[in-house]
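Write out the 3D structure for:
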Amino acid sequence: MLDPRRADWRPLPPAELRALLETQHAPWWIAGGTALELFAGRSWREHGDLDAGILRADQPAVYAALPGWRRFAAHDGELRELGAGELAPPEANSLWCRHADESAFRFELLLDASDGAHWTFRRDPRVRLPLAELALRTRDGCPYLRPEVQLLYKAKARRPKDEADFAVVAPLLDARACDWLRRALALVDPAHAWLTALARSTR
């Protein structure tokens, strides 16, 4: 077991992660704060890691495209290395990845739930979205998680960086995205402080 608090990070440039994941056919997308910056078209804070989302069901296809990469399941403050063909345990929603020749972690794979042709929010499956609508694309075709979905994930922790991301990105959402996030948050956390700001935006 490894202690994630002592882990060394040296994130890949997003273009390098894209080159890795484009060698296979399962859907994937840039996630986390980097996804929000791709949406906004600018950067406003530093990033200590780099996240990409995949469907939990697509793990075998994605892992086959990552020879030479070691994967560590993150759960309950510990990192456990997975075997070559081993899938993440159900309780782990993220995998920290580093190359076999390196000690620093380079990217994190976030495992998303799905139900047929729909993405489902793993914290509340009532929140759904067609898989075909889950990601947007940059002008050069790089997929990234829709900002309203990424903000929903960030709403739970409300760390300073999450609050900063919401303050920048929420005013940029169109009416449909803002309404989706408001309705999803109302289901998941009806007393969430962001609902007030989102209600003003949808008037």
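Residues 4-146 form a domain with the Beta Polymerase; domain 2 fold (CATH 3.30.460.40).
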